[in-house]
Design a protein that fits this description.
Radius of gyration: 16 Å
Number of strands: 0
Distance between the termini: 21 Å
Mean pLDDT: 90
Order of helices and strands: HHHH
């Protein structure tokens, strides 16, 4: 497995989560009033999920397991087949 794409995706995930942390207000009422923060948080959470799915797909492709059909199945494959407990 090529480590460079994994490391790049992990860095992208780290940046997304950092933006969420930076822009997340202390309480829900503040978030309701701050549309820009809502947009930044939503965008970065969406990106974080997609990067996580991409990472899962990359890891699954390096193993001899069937390709998942859904995002959820990507994580199930990691948990159950690729890296069993």
């Amino acid at each position: 497995m090529d480590r460079q794409p994994v490391e790049q995706k992990l860095e992208s995930l780290r940046r997304c989560l950092l933006r969420v942390t930076e822009k997340c207000p202390l309480d829900a009422a503040s978030l309701v009033r701050d549309v820009d923060a809502q947009d930044i948080i939503t965008l970065n959470l969406t990106r974080a999920v997609q990067v996580s799915v991409d990472l899962a797909a990359h890891l699954i492709a390096s193993r001899d397991v069937p390709a998942p059909n859904t995002m959820g199945q990507s994580f199930e494959a990691l948990a159950l087949r690729v890296y069993p407990r």
